[in-house]
Design a protein that fits this description.
With 498 residues, the chain is an all-beta fold. It has 2 domains: 393 residues, TolB, C-terminal domain (Neuraminidase); 83 residues, Immunoglobulin-like (Sandwich). The protein has no helices and 38 strands. The strands form 8 sheets. A 9-stranded mixed beta sheet has the order 24-25-26-27-31-38-37-34-35, with no helix packed on it. It has a 5-stranded antiparallel beta sheet with strand order 1-2-30-29-28, with no helix packed on it. The radius of gyration is 23 Å and the shape is globular.
Length: 498
């Protein structure tokens, strides 16, 4: 079990988790924070060889508050691959146990809906399959109103793909299921949330023409009967899966991607809808890129701000992960892009499937780190779980938001910036050592020093190698140092003056 990680001081960390070994693909899909500050991840993880086939397992990882492993456990279904749903398909029960919703897949390529139980310590316990619903692929699971579970996804019905919602009891036994959509075009459900009065909100994507899809929103009653539904697309092919979250006022907000211009580019989008299906506001974010999509959104309580995650594609076909914070009306407060770098690869691409507010006022996100943009993956490098913990401003190192011109951050370059002696007496100078990978050493570099109170103290040019920095005239205290090129935050560290 390996972990390529460099936990930062304070509340932020950035990890590439490889719980099995290089060469095997893994994927992070859900994230929760526990009352003790630990972070729980649901992943597609370990690969096992049964007598006839290699199969994947549903993995639950618990990290402590600084990003170190607390536990890793795999749910292996004999002779089958097991998968969890997409974003946020994991819940914690009142007894501390965890349940992950997903599917199994056998050697005849038949999918079955499934639930996987782990105990309060994160250890695999049991699973339940719904064998009466073959070819039903689960995209998300959530708690039902009565202690059971509701699952949504898409089903192969003859030659058609239709959306489904189903409900189980607390033991995973099927109580009812409903199909939605038409036989003319393919239809999918991607998310489900509890609504007012024992109802449920569902988000998906609906086929509205040949190779044309729109975000699809529904409200259903306690047994899955439709109350209302509508699509909210453009004349172009939206491909905007609607990922929704119920708000404290009983309405919901959903994230997707909205085509711009002639439909060739997209921007991340958030839309708020009330309980009657009326759109209250709609907002788009960031510049248009070849593809952009919000994969999860949650409400920040108290206050009502929103935090969203997903991906954009600034350099086709390479994409990055982003986090976006808005106020309760969807007005952007900040949006930050993240790239991945470590000793294995220096320009890793990936995206975030799920994000959660954390008790310290920051955010934690999980997704996948896929490959190097420049193709410098060493032999055996693999797709791994990507975990990012940032402060309330989306910074890996506090104060990044103060630096002008910064639009993106490279994670896991903490070893690229060293300062010594540290602590240092006031009135002297320090040595700042910059050791960047070759891919990041070509742009002009600047070092920005920010006080603990959030004030920029100094900004100066630095070079790759050794730099002498004068700290005379600065008072005793904690300072945050930020290394950046004209557009990208690269690394940060702390300096203490005594």
């Amino acid at each position: 079990m390996g972990s390529f990680c460099s936990p930062s001081e304070g509340q932020a960390f950035h990890l590439r988790l490889d719980t099995i070994s290089s060469g095997w693909a893994q994927l992070g899909r859900g994230i929760l924070e526990l009352d003790n500050g630990n972070i729980v991840l649901s992943c597609v993880g370990e690969w096992d060889q049964d007598t006839v086939v290699w199969s994947s397992a549903v993995t639950l990882i618990i990290l402590d508050s600084v990003g170190e492993y607390d536990s890793v456990s795999n749910m292996n279904v004999p002779f089958k691959s097991s998968y969890n749903g997409q974003s946020r398909s994991m819940v914690q029960l009142s007894d501390g146990h965890f349940v992950i919703g997903g599917s199994t897949w056998d050697t005849t390529l038949v999918d079955l809906p499934a639930l996987y139980w782990f105990d309060a310590n994160g250890q695999a316990m049991s699973y339940a399959e719904i064998i009466s619903l073959p070819e039903y692929i689960v995209r998300q699971m959530n708690k039902a109103h009565d202690g059971g579970f509701v699952l949504v996804g898409d089903a192969l019905i003859g030659n058609d793909i239709q959306a489904f919602v189903l409900k189980t009891d607390s033991a995973g036994q099927l109580e009812w299921s409903q199909l939605f959509g038409t036989t003319a075009y393919d239809d999918y459900f991607w998310s489900i949330e509890r609504g007012p009065d024992n109802t449920y909100y569902i988000g998906g994507v609906k086929g509205v023409g040949s190779n044309s899809y729109d975000p699809w929103l529904l409200r259903v009653d306690s047994v899955g009967n439709e109350i209302w539904s509508f699509t909210n697309g453009t004349p172009y092919d939206d491909l905007g899966q609607a990922h929704l979250f119920t708000l404290a006022d009983g309405s919901f907000v959903y994230g997707s991607g909205k085509p711009t211009g002639n439909g060739t580019d997209q921007r991340p989008q958030l839309v708020k809808v009330d309980s009657t299906g009326t759109i209250l506001w709609s907002q788009e974010y960031d510049v248009a890129t070849h593809s952009a999509l919000i994969l999860d959104v949650q409400e920040i309580v108290p206050g009502g701000d929103l935090i969203a995650c997903g991906y954009s594609t600034p350099i086709n076909p390479f994409f990055d992960g982003f986090l976006c914070r808005t106020n309760s009306q969807g007005d952007s407060l900040w949006l930050r892009h993240y790239w991945y770098t470590d000793s294995i690869m220096n320009d890793g691409i990936g995206y975030f499937n799920d994000v959660t507010p954390t008790s310290d006022g920051g955010f934690a996100a999980v997704g996948v780190m896929i490959q190097s943009m420049s193709g410098n993956d060493p032999p055996g490098a693999s797709q791994d779980v990507w975990v990012l913990k940032v402060d309330s401003m989306g910074c890996v190192q506090p104060g990044c938001h103060i630096i002008t011109g910064i639009e993106s951050q490279v994670t896991n370059l903490s070893d690229a910036l060293r300062v010594y002696p540290n602590p240092v007496a006031s009135g002297g100078q320090v040595t700042v050592e910059v050791r960047l990978p070759a891919a990041h050493g070509h742009e002009p570099l600047r070092l920005v020093m920010v006080s603990a109170q959030g004030q920029v103290i100094s900004e100066q040019r630095v070079v790759h190698g050794i730099n002498a920095i004068d700290v005379s005239g600065m008072g005793a205290g904690l300072y945050h140092l930020h290394l950046a090129d004209p557009n990208t935050w690269l690394a940060g560290t702390n300096l203490v003056l005594e």
